[in-house]
Amino acid sequence: MKFLLYAQVDRQTIGKQLGSADYSYFFLLRAFSGVLAQLGEVIQLQDPAQADLIHAQCLSDGERCVLLSFAPPHKTAWGLACPTIPVFAWEYPDIPERIEEACWQDDPRHDWRHVLGRTGRAITLSSHTVEAVQRSMGCGYPIVAIPSPLAAVVPPPDPARIPPPPAGAVLRVFASVADSSRMGLDVDGLICLDEEDGTLHHPDDAATLPERAPPGTDDSPTTPPRPRLDEPCEADESEPADCGWELPPAARIRTRLHGVVYTSVLTPSAGRKNWEDLITAFCWAFRDSVDATLVLKLAGTDLTLHHHQLLMLLTKLSPFKCRVIAINGYLSDEDYAALVDATTYYVNASLCEGLCLPLVEFLSHGIPALAPDHTAMADYIRDDLAFVLASYPGVPTVWPHGDGEVNRTSYHQLDWQSLLQAYRRSHEIAVHDPQRYRRMARRASEAMQAYCGVAAVKSQLHAFLCPQLPLPQPAGHGAPVAWPNPLPAES
Question: In the chain, what are the domains?
Answer without folding.
Answer: 2-150+454-465 (3.40.50), 159-189+226-450 (3.40.50.2000)
